[in-house]
Amino acid sequence: MIAYIERFVHDNDVDSLPEPETAEEQADLSPLFNGVDLQGTVEFAGCGSASGRDFGGVQLSKPLALIRPANSDDVAKVVRLASRSPHLTVAARGNGHSVNGQAMAHRGLVLDMKTIEPKITVDPATAQADVSGGALWEDVLKRCVLGYGLAPRSWTDYLGLTVGGTLSNAGVSGQTFIYGPQTENVTELEVVTGNGDVLVCSKNENPELFFSVLGGLGQFGIITRARVLLQPAPDMVRWIRVVYSEFSEFTRDAEFLVTRAEGDSFDYLEGFVFVNSDDPVNGWASVPLDSDQFFDPSCIPRAAGPVLYCLEVALHYKNEDPPSAVDMRSERLMGGLRFVEGLRFSVDVGYMEFLLRVKRAEEEAKANGIWDAPHPWLNLFVSKTDIADFDRVVFKNILKHGVGGPILIYPLLPSKWDSRKSVVLPEGEMFYLVALLRFCFPYPKGLSAQEMIVQNQEILQSCIQNGFDFKLYLPHYTSREGWKRHFGNQWTRFQERKARFDPMAILAPGQKIFPRNW
Ligand code: FAD
After folding, report:
1. Shortest-distance atom of ligand 1 to CA 171
2. Suppose 93 and one of 103, 125, 348, 393 were both cysteines; which one would form an S-S bond, judging by CB atoms 3.0 to 4.6 Å apart?
3. Is the peptide bond between 444 and the residue preceding it cis, with omega within 30 degrees of 0?
4. Would you name the residues annotated as active-site residues?
């Protein structure tokens, strides 16, 4: 049977899909799982549908089977099954919110991690929660806050992502400048390695596996459980946006706020670039926080350029905090900032409402068809040294008409990232996250995916030609050379980790880093 399967898996080229197999051929695959004794289920027919797509909508693949594991043992059995064939691969699929096929396994096995019973067990005494790798962060939030008044410290903007999916990348948002990415906020993992072993790891137990897996792009193991650090959840959030016409003033204020002593700044800081026009999606209207707030363009200085900048901050507080104390704390921090007078927006919202803010955007986008259109997103970490030139070349020039969705930009501190983990960062004491979150109507109403991809390439080319120090976040390369450049002096370490924890290169083939049997 293994030999039979191999007929299907020799072709690893996602971009040249062969014709689908017949129903008989699909049915013939089922003996592969005979004697494997899974508690979960295996689906052959139609498995090329949802599990062969992702949020990006620009890659398609056809897995041989979609497996819905019931527990970590099932995950280990599937990895061991694949190891008995010279060609089978295994992709853990979280919520499939990658944009370049990273969670796909063309002619391989896809594990739907969400089907493992999502356990979220909170220990208030140690302020930690044990959560399954396939649990959605929004479920972690609800369980921790509603059940215990506790919450994870570090988030992503959107919470319809799985714990294992974001921990395989980093998981960044407006709290990262304080606590580091989500990968810095877990103390223990249970992992199924590419060798089929189920291991618990932490800084003290199997530390090399722990550091490898966090930010490891799914290359070294499948996270089946994570122990997440918690803190007391606030009740309310004061959410503030202010506008800048000068990039240098925007960065000065953002950098000032993220480098203040711990506990003496906002609890959240992000920023975004928007178009200096009445464009309803990319322009002034994207700034106000409430429908009764009005963006008055007459406040914008005459000398302002084609794009403006918005600094977004938030302050946590409890219901019992006197309003005057909350005002005083926020005004003290806002006091020295140099934003444009008259362009300040503020609302007070519940903590869960704040963290679930993108969910509302998701509902709207689903209703008007842009959630299901292609999303060729580009995420970069750009060194602080080059960010002013990046603004000149990219924001003010290539992107002066916007991207049809948010263009995030905010500073992060490498000192909050443990370099033993697998993520690679630009050099220096500070870098910026830049995220082009393209939300366009399906072509021909909006741009075609190809046009957006070409623009991404133009941006990357400009970065290279100008010698900018940058790294892709949620990286995507199709050549070994691309990956070697990405990891730079960490490439040898990354390869050694692969050789140790997944020597046959069974895991996460959609990342296209190591071919099976490299
Ligand atoms: P998938 O896309 O399913 O998987 C991603 C990779 O991880 C794949 O290689 C997969 O094989 C691997 N993987 C999945 N589960 C596991 C596991 N249990 N163990 C090991 N490997 C696994 N990112 C941020 O950092 N901050 C944000 O604010 C943010 N916002 C986003 C908003 C939206 C609307 C979207 C679509 C994405 C956003 N992302 C953000 C990116 C997101 O973090 C990544 O795309 C993440 O990989 C998606 O999680 P997922 O569960 O869908 O993973």
Report:
1. 25
2. 103
3. yes
4. 97, 157, 270
